[in-house]
Each structure stands twice: as C-alpha cells, then as structure tokens.
Amino acid sequence: MKKLPSSVRIGRYDVQLIQEANPTLDGRPCLGTFKSEDLVFSIKLGLLPQQLADTLFHEILHAIAYERGLPEEFGEEQAVLAFGAGIVQARRDNPEIFSVIDSAFP
C-alpha cells in the first residue's frame, strides 16, 4: 500500500494525518479518530490494507460532516458507518467506474 500523505484536504480545511500505535476515543481503543478541535486524523499503525481503507473513509466522512456543519443529532456515527463501508465496498467491487471518476480530477 502507498505511503499516507501528511494531510488531507476536506473542504476549507487541511487535516493533519498521523499514525499512532494506540489511538483512543473517549478513553477506548479504536482504529482511528478525527479531532475537529485540532483538525487531526489519528490512524492506528499496522492495519491491514482493507482495514486502513475502511478507517480512512470512515474518518474522512466524519471530517466532511464536521466541515459541512452536519449536526450530531442527525445520527452522524450511524451514517458514517453505513456510507464508509458502502463506499469502500463499491470502490473495491467497481474499480472501472472509480477509475473514470478519478480521471476527472487530474
């Protein structure tokens, strides 16, 4: 898998991307986090490629929800879980269509 970039542009924000051994959320171990107050993604080191892809999409969706002002009462976590997994699966199952989409953004 390719080396991760040091930041990811999400709307008007450049979000720092770091990898760490044991990220936590509310004191519990997790695979990744998005900290809106610091504009930082923390991603667990050593994830399998599929876990890494799913976690990156998941955290990017949290950042998009934050940047676009989606209220937490909307059920953000449930939406992010559903859309993140769906996007990863759609991309894996349909590389040809994502190749077309990717080519639109040189």
Describe the structure.
The chain has 106 residues and is α+β, with helices and mostly antiparallel strands. It has a single domain (7-103), classed as Arc Repressor Mutant, subunit A (Orthogonal Bundle). Helix content is 43%, strand content 24%. The chain is built from 3 helices and 6 strands, in the order ββββββααα. It has helices at residues 49-67, 76-93, 95-103; strands spanning 7-10, 13-20, 24-25, 28-29, 32-35, 40-44. Strands 1-2-6-5 form a 4-stranded mixed beta sheet, with helices on one face. Strands 3-4 form a two-stranded antiparallel ribbon. A hairpin with a 4-residue loop joins strand 5 (32-35) and strand 6. Helix 1 (49-67) crosses helix 2. It is globular and about 40 Å long. The two termini are 21 Å apart.
Give the topology, please.
Elements: E1 7-10, E2 13-20, E3 24-25, E4 28-29, E5 32-35, E6 40-44, H1 49-67, H2 76-93, H3 95-103
Parallel strand pairs: 2-6
Antiparallel strand pairs: 1-2, 3-4, 5-6
